């Protein structure tokens, strides 16, 4: 089972099967960026302190807009311009 990981800033990353690939580098939540530290998904939904959420790609550093809910952050991350294809 993939356990959520908390980084030094107190951000909790959780895997969400609803996430589209990163629009810039093409990594997904199935890609692992740190095998030596256990499973760390390249793209994950992050919960920041004070209940703010955003989706972030650890591969290229891209992050989506902040939202008050995880569902809202995922929806905003998955919003793509018309005709934009996933790279991966």
Q: Any descriptors?
A:
88 residues, alpha+beta, four-stranded antiparallel β-sheet, 4 strands
Topology (elements, then pairings):
Layout: E1 5-6, E2 12-14, E3 43-48, E4 52-57, H1 70-78
Antiparallel strand pairs: 1-2, 2-3, 3-4
Structure description:
There is one protein chain. The chain has 88 residues and is an alpha+beta fold. Helices cover 10% and strands 19% of the residues. It is built from one helix and four strands; from the N terminus they run E-E-E-E-H. It has one helix at 70-78; strands at residues 5-6, 12-14, 43-48, 52-57. The protein has a four-stranded antiparallel beta sheet, with helices on one face. A hairpin with a 5-residue loop joins strand 1 (5-6) and strand 2 (12-14). The two termini are 24 Å apart. 24% of the residues are buried. Residues 1-5 and 82-88 have low confidence and may be disordered.
Relative helix content: 10-25%
Oligomer, anyone?
Answer: single chain
Number of strands: 4
Distance between the termini: 24 Å
Strands of the widest sheet, in order across it, are: 1-2-3-4
Share in β-strands: 15-25%
How large, in whole angstroms, is the Cα Rg?
A: 12 Å
> How would a textbook summarize the main sheet?
4 strands, antiparallel
Question: What's the pLDDT, averaged over the residues?
Answer: 77
Q: Could you provide a short overview of the structure?
A:
The protein is an alpha+beta fold and 88 residues long.
